[in-house]
Design brief:
10-stranded mixed β-sheet; D-Maltodextrin-Binding Protein, domain 2; single chain; alpha/beta; 39% helix; globular; 332 residues
């Protein structure tokens, strides 16, 4: 499977895209849901006067749009839910470098060495648990504890249409090797792991008590609490010998040949500004990746032990990881 085929295999339905790019508007292709990004878009327009067309779809599907439109791009800015896919687009020459004082403030492991993309916020890969179903003394502190038979039939995760799931599994392959990861995933399947459509189904299912434990993204803990659900959170494998908790960046990149590249650059700098970061932290509960940014109620990046896996390595291994997952269960 080529990188193009990998993107096609992960594509989902897209919102309609404009037939022609408007010369006076910023067109954003966003793998983030509209409710997550629109507050930032509205604040950007208010500050700059630049109107925005926000086109929302699956991260991989939008990457395919960029690939198919390369001779005549219609989008200006691409926002991805993880970094591996933008490394693929970088290697294919489909992104335009952008480096500024704002991007320089982002932690080095959350931006491209080539300057073609930068992380704008992060989401940690957490264990979410239902407090009514999991006694405090039994709360698992490691993802590797989830193969214990006592969790049989009580586990949920989103499939790879959620790119953060694929990034998590790929980070495991990069750190632990394919054989170890296969055995671990087999253990989860033997324990009755339920693969759901998306992360919303995971956090809502855990909150309702349909599952005791879910593997999902850190903002979903705060969303669950907002909805008065009886949940707790663990940032797993944080002990001295632990693997760590992956943090997946939401990524922004200027599309090569974009009709309005300067507006795209302005948006990246705005979302990395204190005002832009404040919106992502307070409204979406995302982890700031900018040095010295206020994390608010969210656990700051410096407090999370993370596995050392580069975006380049994730891009190299995503194809093999997807094959591994689907060989175990086509529902991935």
């Amino acid at each position: 499977m080529t990188a193009t085929a990998l993107l096609l295999s992960l594509s989902g339905a897209l919102y309609p895209l404009p037939a022609e790019a408007a010369p006076d508007r910023l067109v954003i292709y966003s793998g983030r849901k509209e409710k997550a990004l629109k507050p930032v878009v509205d604040a950007f327009t208010k500050q700059t006067g630049i109107p925005v067309d926000l086109k929302v779809g699956k991260t991989a599907g939008l990457a395919n749009e960029i690939r198919m439109e390369k001779a005549r791009p219609r989008g200006d800015l691409y926002i991805s839910t993880e970094s591996g896919i933008v490394e693929i687009l970088t290697k294919d020459g489909l992104l335009e470098p952008h480096q500024s004082a704002a991007t320089k403030a982002v932690a080095d492991d959350f931006k491209s060495a080539a300057g073609t993309w930068t992380g704008i916020s992060g989401r940690a890969r957490i264990i979410l648990y239902n407090k009514n179903l999991v006694p405090e003394k039994d709360v698992p502190r490691s993802i590797f504890a989830l193969t214990d038979p006592k969790w049989k039939g009580q586990l949920a995760i989103a499939g790879t249409r959620e790119r953060t799931t694929l990034a998590w599994a790929t980070a495991l392959v990069a750190s632990k090797g394919e054989a170890f990861t296969r055995d671990y995933l087999k253990g989860l399947h033997a324990n009755g792991l339920k693969i759901l459509a998306d992360n919303t189904e995971v956090w809502q299912g855990v909150g309702r008590g349909e599952f005791a434990i879910g593997l999902t993204n850190s903002p979903n803990y705060y969303l669950s609490r907002q909805n008065n659900l009886p949940v707790g959170v663990i940032y797993p494998d944080q002990d001295a010998s632990g693997w760590g908790t992956p943090v997946n960046p939401n990524v922004a990149a200027v599309i090569k040949g974009a009709p309005n590249p300067e507006a795209a650059r302005k948006f990246i700098d705005f979302v990395l500004s204190p005002d832009g970061q404040r919106i992502l932290v307070t409204q979406d509960y995302e982890i700031p990746l900018v040095d010295n940014a206020d994390a608010g109620a969210v656990l700051p990046l410096k407090s999370i032990k993370r596995p050392a896996v580069s975006a380049e390595r994730l891009a190299e291994l995503e194809e093999a990881t997807l094959k591994l997952l689907t060989s175990l269960d086509p529902n991935w």
